[in-house]
Amino acid sequence: MRLDDRLLDFFNRPLMCIIAAADETRRPSAGRGIGFRLLDDRETIDVIFSGWQWPRLETCIRQTARLAATFVSPPDYVSFQLKGSATMRDTDAPDLAHADRFMTAATNELESLGVPRYLIAPWLTPREARVARLAISEIYVQTPGPLAGMVAGAWSR
Amino acid sequence: MNLRLSDLSACFEGVIPSIIATASADGMPNISYLSHVVRVDDDHVALSNQFFAKTAANVRANPKVTLILVDGFTGDQFLLDIAFVRSVDAGPLFDKIARQLKASSAQVGMSEIMRLKSADIFRVHGIEKVPSPVDAAPAAGGRPPISLPALASAVKAIERQAEADEIIDNLLCGVEGVLGYGNALVLIQDNHRGCLVTTGSIGYPRSGLGSEVAGSEGMIGAAATSGQTIKVSDMSRVRRFGEAIGLEADGEEDATRSIPFPQLPTAMSQIAVPMLAHGIVTGVLFIESEERLAFREEDEAALEILAGQAAAALRASEREAAKAEPGQPPALVRPATAGREIRVVHHRFDDSIFIDGTYIVKGVAGTLLRLMLEWHLNEGRSEFTNREMRLAAGARMPEIKDNLETRLLLLRRRLEEKQAPIRLVRVVRGRVRLEAEGSLVLEAVANDHPQGSPAV
After folding, report:
1. Do A28 and B113 touch (CB under 8 A)?
2. Are B162 and B122 in contact (CB under 8 A)?
């Protein structure tokens, strides 16, 4: 699946991110993303998370090589979930820069909505940042409402 | 497990969305936000999972689920290892979850979208705290615990009162004195009009006495309908319920016959506590606070005690007043008061009353004033018994037998607040006197669709 223009616009907004993977026994694990990088092919996204805060995520991804990531725009709850196969790759300096921008934008956005900064601080840390490369095979609308669960994006050629 | 669900009470306030991760039968993960997680007991939680078919399908194919809960005070996160047990779509637990969801979603204008169809019950197998990169945030609810002796005194103070105004004033006094909340309202049920009417108020620039909330509107209506306490603990992203309120001028009040509902624009928490006596909701105690998570479990319990005591006292007051009422109306005939002419207009369609063009009140209270004015003009007397009012109004408004006192109280307070040239004075228990600053002219208007200010 490819990210269409509408989704690319969405990814330019301040966002929050939550991610899940499952282990070999199908037990899911969850955590928060701290950033992302869209690749030029529009079919791949690197999702960054704290391995220190969410150690089970990396274990699960290495075991089963699959990942789900939901991105939400805090003011209006507009959300999309991306799913597909995933592999872990080494973290590099640009990843940390992306994470820093993502966390700053998310914190400012939430604060502008009245969430105190001290409340947000425990959720977002770049400590032991890890990167999962997700090959997107499914995209779903996750915004609360009648379209929730609908397929979004464009089929790859 | 070291941590217990009861240690996570601030995670269940619905302030910060929870997160649910599931996996399908073939192991594909799925992740979404959850509007509500409800603690059922120390081993179970219930989830309102009304949107996401995929999550529901996964849970049934693979009961293993992971939750992230967030403490609304500190932001601390907890990972819960849980397993699906069963689904409920009826019964008390379902009703509790549905009420909480309705109350909070109505606040954000999503009540049509967020309609609960079923709730899923899960057994909790493990809880672990997620490491935090920052030191502990400000201590949870840094207020001291409620003083039980102070609460007991407040309960006694309410219990000692015999009159509706004293009961309501003492309830509000207890809310402020024992719990420290400075913005509170008491709304009394008006079954005749299907609404709740503000009859007591503290802390607002405009008292809002006489303002109404429709019987099913927002959290006040939901508390009255369900008999359950409903609260919102963080309104930072919340739209205020009710009409555009608070800024309307008196002229608007005269044109619309609707009194602006009091508003605390900076409110972060709200709670609506039903006033229950013998299983019947007689009104709602509504409180606002500028603090997030202002209403802890113990605050909620204390408010329920005070509201229940006030409801019982109001009920007793009505009964005592009915018993104590003098049987015969006073025979004294007074000459018509001299002075300027006071024009009173009564609109039959909603029993609204205007005095010299100023809107005073409507509904049962309006009917009572009309009755007294008619008796005054026809019989020349100025004192009236509650009993005769009950008899005269009871045929059309049968519920008046249970709430005449609070209606008279509302009428008296509105007359005072509007500085009307007519006042209502309690003579003895069960008898009131009408005092006017001039001669009265009563005009009945039968229009059913008033446009703007009434014709006088």
Report:
1. no
2. no
